[in-house]
Design goal:
The protein contains 16 helices and 8 strands. By secondary structure, it is α/β, with parallel strands linked by helices.
Length: 335
């Protein structure tokens, strides 16, 4: 069983962290905790489960993020996810999209801490897995300290196994979901204050962390207070090469860092299996486009996968040709 205080995780990101993305990320880091995209309770209970919930054994440790606000539905969805073999159940209390607001889940749950506590308690009663909550520091005109502390106290009383705090507000009125990832100012200090008060609760920090150096700095104690974990989102997806340094830098693993080519060789085995199952090549290669940033041949690599990889019947020959464009590129100016 994974522990929610895993020190480093890759955030749940809609349309990005699907099972193919996670299998690729696992070739880069053995230790990071991976998260699914958010899946709604309705989809888990009534939808095509294997397509929504299926994952590969190589992904462990892997957590599922659920979206919902009905305790009974969340308990049922958590049981289904536990049966699938996930290592952690995470409740989304941070997503600001309109669809989420209309469904009464995501960031708007920051306004209903008692309901969130009921949801956590119901899931805790249903499964033996760690149950965690991912939240913002407040929404709209809420006072962040008051909103975050109230929610944290409520879910702690309900037995939550960890909190992941995206250290900025969500503005449900006036900002798009994309703007909500950048515009509201970051407040890392509030997360350290929360940890100082709730030392027994594993707390992970998320938001605006772009490098492993920044991640390591946030894991350093401040005034005797140390956070348990950091979570990276867009930086991990858009610049996946940084993940190759996670096991050594964050987990102090004494090991040689993989090369991008070794990671792609490992991912090639996964791709071959999925191609045989009928998965289109581009569904898997879209996640690797950022791997060679700044490396000669990177532009040609991206272009080849983007043009040839989307064609019907594209297979390992396209994959291999793209990799060879970098492997054989003249070592001159970075692409």
């Amino acid at each position: 069983m994974s522990h929610p205080a895993t020190r480093f995780s890759i955030a749940p990101m809609m349309d990005w962290t699907d099972r193919h993305c996670r299998a690729f990320h696992r070739t880069l880091t053995q230790r990071a905790l991976l998260y699914t995209e958010m899946v709604t309770t309705g989809a888990v209970i009534h939808g095509p489960r294997e397509r929504l919930l299926g994952f590969s054994a190589v992904e462990h440790p892997v957590a599922i993020q659920l979206g919902g606000s009905d305790p009974a539905d969340l308990a049922r969805a958590a049981r289904i996810a536990a049966d699938y073999g996930y290592d952690e159940i995470n409740l989304n209390c941070g997503c600001p999209s309109d669809r989420v607001q209309n469904g009464r889940f995501g960031a708007c749950l920051m306004r209903e801490p008692a309901l969130v506590a009921d949801c956590v308690a119901a899931m805790k009663a249903a499964v033996r897995l760690p149950v965690t909550v991912k939240c913002r520091i407040g929404v709209d005109d809420q006072d962040p300290d008051e909103a975050l502390n109230t929610l944290a106290d409520a879910v702690t009383a309900a037995g939550v196994n960890g909190l992941v705090v995206h250290a900025r507000k969500a503005w449900l009125q006036g900002l798009s979901p994309k703007e909500n990832r950048d515009v509201p100012p970051l407040d890392y200090d509030i997360v350290f204050r929360l940890k100082a008060r709730l030392r027994q609760v594993p707390i992970s920090i998320n938001g605006g962390i772009a490098t492993l150096e920044a991640a390591k700095a946030l894991l350093m104690p401040r005034d005797g207070v140390a956070l348990d974990s950091v979570m990276l989102g867009r930086a991990a997806y858009q610049s996946p090469a940084l993940l190759m340094g996670v096991d050594a830098a964050i987990f102090d693993e004494d090991m040689r860092e993989k090369t991008p080519f070794e990671a792609l060789d490992a991912y090639r085995c996964y791709v071959a299996v999925r191609l045989a199952e009928g998965v289109p090549l581009h569904a898997m290669t879209r996640h690797i486009l950022g791997l060679f940033q700044g490396v000669p041949g990177a532009r040609q690599f991206r272009r080849h996968l983007s043009v040839e990889g989307v064609k019907s019947g594209a297979g390992l020959d396209v994959y291999d040709a793209a990799v060879n464009l970098v492997r054989n590129a003249p070592r001159r100016d970075a692409a």
